[in-house]
Write a structure and sequence with these properties.
Helix content: 40-55%
Strand order of the largest sheet: 2-1-3-4-5
Low-confidence stretches: 384-388
Distance between the termini: 86 Å
CATH class of the largest domain: Alpha Beta
Largest sheet: 5 strands, parallel
Number of strands: 16
Radius of gyration: 30 Å
Number of helices: 20
């Protein structure tokens, strides 16, 4: 596998160097280790790394702070992570003020180290917007702005990416955009839904099989990893992959070789792996339903796509985009949402996210007899009035009405007692009853 980032690790303890080297190399990085700050500076004269990780306290020579200071004299933007097992709070504060990218305490867990390294490398990489990428993702919200910035930086590398998000949020669109914005854009992009293929066929689909490997294997079949060689394979719903196949996938990711079913030799492949799931993989790992080692291997960089209701500012742009697509696909003039219809859609809950919005827009555009799509049609298209978000005024009014009814029931319609419970005088209470058209006599005990 091509290693895009080179890391320089500095520690005066050989055992710690070996441990860090193992973690980082298994994370997909090119790692060089040295035993002192002086060796680190000498190494950097010939081979400049993308990131330096250094111990704070070293036996002789310069310490981690001094090393970072020397590095930043000539390379002020080079990120430096400082590690320490005996640091004080003042050390962490000093390191931050001196420009460390992170200050981590030993012992550090594998996941946390890889997460910190991945995030720092991405944010320090040159991250100019890729116009093609931005054009393929429709957005204006700040939450999506930050996500696209991260995705653009990721696209310039071959680092393994995990995309999380609810069903219908556009995980595959993001995966394709990352592929198209990277160096592999002219090579295949192949997606596979790991939950849509029967377990007994998934291994063959991914890795291929030899003729006669199993009943029905009448000819040799190259799997999707081979078909995607040079490009990107997108493993959607990776959380649905059976445990028996997870260990084989892990081996492929580590060695970049596949062994077809029934074969005796491995076949090298060169693919970028992007995976996705709507499920909580961390919880699955804790429950024993997903391998921890595979989880860490896949989750080098995570893109968490927000649900549509958390990016409501994007709904007008998305709706307009889908109306444009519909008009082009059906060779008709483009229709528009009325202001009332658009406001209704913006306030909806959208449990099906972007996919649901697209379906609703297509239905509205199909059924609308006029150029403007009316509110009634938008409501009909959504097919669930309960998904409409109430305004704050409406929510307050509903609460107030229900509260007044409750205190009247408690006081069996006795207004003076109800007003006392509510902390209002009788005049104010009667005004509130009038606003909500509530008749207190309906709550009186008829038997008395």
């Amino acid at each position: 596998m091509k290693k895009e980032y080179r890391l320089l690790v500095v520690d005066d303890e050989q055992d710690m160097l070996l441990l860090l080297e193992s973690i980082l190399e298994n994370g997909g990085y090119d790692v060089k280790t040295v035993l002192s700050g002086e060796e680190a500076l000498a190494e950097m004269q010939d081979n400049m790394p993308n990131l330096v990780i250094t111990d704070l306290f070293m036996g002789e020579g310069m310490n981690g702070m001094q090393l970072m200071e020397n590095i930043h004299k000539n390379s002020p933007l080079l990120p430096v992570i400082i590690l320490s097992g005996q640091a004080q709070i003042r050390d962490a504060v000093q390191a931050t003020h001196m420009g460390s990218a992170a200050f981590l305490t030993k012992p550090i867990g594998r996941e946390k180290l890889l997460e910190q390294v991945g995030q720092i490398l991405i944010t320090s990489a040159s991250g100019k917007k890729n116009k093609e990428f931005s054009d393929s993702i429709i957005y204006k919200s700040n939450i999506m702005e930050e996500l696209v910035d991260l995705a653009v930086a990721v696209a310039a590398t071959s680092v393994t990416v995990f995309i999380s998000g609810e069903t219908g949020t556009g995980k595959e669109i993001f995966a394709k955009a990352i592929h198209e914005a990277g160096e592999r854009r002219n090579k295949p992009f192949i997606g596979v839904n790991c939950g849509a293929i029967p377990e007994q066929l998934l291994e063959s689909e991914l890795f291929g099989h030899e003729k006669g490997a199993f009943t029905g294997a009448a000819s040799k079949h190259d799997g999707l990893f081979q078909a995607a060689s040079g490009g990107t394979i997108f493993l959607d719903e990776i959380g649905d992959m059976p445990l028996s196949l997870q260990v084989k996938l892990l081996r492929v990711l580590q060695d970049m070789e596949v062994r077809p079913v029934g074969a005796t030799k491995n076949i090298p492949v060169d693919v970028r792996v992007i995976s996705a799931s709507h499920r909580n993989l961390e919880a699955m790992v804790e429950a024993g339903d997903f391998r921890a080692d595979l989880y860490y291997r896949l989750k080098v960089v995570t893109l968490a796509i927000p649900k549509l209701s958390d990016r409501y500012e994007d709904i007008p742009l998305l709706a307009d985009h889908f109306l444009e697509q519909f008009a082009q696909a059906n060779n008709t003039s483009k229709k528009k949402l009325s202001p009332e219809a658009l406001n209704y859609l913006i306030s909806a809950d959208w449990p099906g996210n972007i996919r649901q919005l697209n379906n609703v827009i297509e239905l509205c555009a199909t059924l609308s007899k006029t150029k403007n799509i009316a509110l009634s049609l938008a409501k009909s298209g959504l097919q669930d009035r309960s998904t409409q978000m109430k305004t704050l005024k409406e929510a307050k009014s509903e609460f107030e009405k229900n509260y007044l009814i409750s205190v009247l029931k408690m006081s069996t319609g006795h207004v003076a007692n109800a007003a006392k419970i509510a902390g209002r005088n009788r005049t104010e209470f009667y005004k509130l009853l009038g606003v909500h058209n509530i008749e207190p006599g309906k709550f009186r005990n008829k038997d008395k």
